[in-house]
Design brief:
alpha+beta; Glutaredoxin; Glutathione S-transferase Yfyf (Class Pi), Chain A, domain 2; 2 domains; 4 strands
Length: about 230
């Protein structure tokens, strides 16, 4: 039995962790969190993550939550998930935390505006957030140009965090009048294309029913269990 248990829902932030686990070659078990039944809000799940959010990774060091924190823990177990050279490692960690503190919250605000404002304010908030998202993507596209620690010969934890977000921005919100075009960000498009070639990506994609081009031309998930929405 594996000593790592990923509490997941299909095509959620837990996908970032599944990608990293597959890239690391670490054995793990999964436990479905049924979002349709709001299982992430249950007392038993909140005992693992009091925030009631997905994912959680149960480890020998305890139950871990927060996507970036779990990814950094996995990089400690499998050092090849981050560059070994000091300056590159520092840059990689900087961008990882930027994704966690800047890009991911922007996506959450775009996908769940009702959690941030009243019904009357949601339209204006979403319009402003779409503009901010494109600005942030442009920053990241420039910042990662030429970076060997993402979109390289093997995936890093940055790949594992970034590519699901590139996927989601092209799919959600379902009712959005427009969404970012990945082709407008050539560095990010190259990273997404490269990540679709990794064997570890194929394993995660098959497990969650994400289709043939999950990052560059995504379709809505058809998972074998659970719900992505």
């Amino acid at each position: 039995m594996s000593n790592l248990i990923l509490h997941y829902a299909p095509d959620n932030a837990s996908l970032c962790i599944r990608l990293a686990l597959e890239a690391a070659g670490l054995p793990f078990a999964t436990c479905l969190v049924d979002r349709a039944a709001s299982a992430q809000k249950s007392e038993s799940y909140r005992a693992l993550n009091p925030n009631g959010l997905i994912p959680v990774l149960e480890t020998p060091d305890g139950a871990l939550f927060e996507t970036a924190a779990i990814l950094l823990w996995l990089a400690e177990q499998k050092p090849s998930l981050l560059p070994s050279q000091s300056s590159q490692r520092a840059q990689a960690v900087m961008w990882l935390i930027w994704m966690s503190n800047t890009l991911h919250p922007t996506l959450r605000m775009l996908f769940y505006p009702d959690q941030y404002t009243t019904e009357n304010g949601q339209g204006a908030l979403s319009e402003h957030t779409r503009t901010r998202l494109c600005d942030q993507l442009a920053i990241l596209d420039t910042g990662l140009a030429g970076a060997g620690y993402v979109g390289g010969k093997a995936p890093s934890i940055l790949d594992c965090y970034l590519c699901p977000m590139l996927r989601w921005m092209q799919l959600y919100p379902v009712s959005a009048p427009s969404r970012p075009n990945l082709a407008d960000f050539p560095t990010l498009q190259r990273i997404a294309e490269t990540n679709e070639t990794y064997r570890s990506t194929a394993a995660a994609v098959a497990a969650e029913g994400l289709g043939d081009a999950p990052f560059t031309a995504p379709n809505y998930a058809h998972p074998p269990e659970g719900s992505a929405i």
